[in-house]
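Lab channel / #folding
Pinned by the channel admin:
"Please post every new chain as: sequence first, then the structure tokens as a reply. Keep commentary short and put observations after the output so the thread stays searchable."

First post following the new format, from NK:
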Amino acid sequence: MPEEIPTVHAVPPAELERYHRLATPQPVRTVTEPIELTGDWRGLPTTGVFCLANGLSLEFARTLHGTGMPRFAKLAEPGVTFFELATGHYPMLSTPAELADVLMRAAAGEGVGLYEG
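Reply from TO:
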């Protein structure tokens, strides 16, 4: 995959090589077999991390929520927060320290709601 594709934005060459060497295809059953949810997850805090190099951002999420489509309603619910990272789809490879910081902050209850900040 060429480095200019946003999903690998800012991934150091050694990490990109390691990724290609160790990555495996996603098991097809993860998208073909339904799962049953109890609904218990609804009470848990939710945090999203937007990777800006992919075009995802708080502003984009606001646009999705603004469509009024029910599937985007959760984006603005209480307890749903977000962070933005200036990287591509693989922050664990391109910005691991920053991602770890965001995860620690999310665990501490930080982050911004869809219409904050």
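NK: Residues 96-107 form the longest helix (12 residues).
TO: also worth noting, The chain is about 35% helix and 10% strand.
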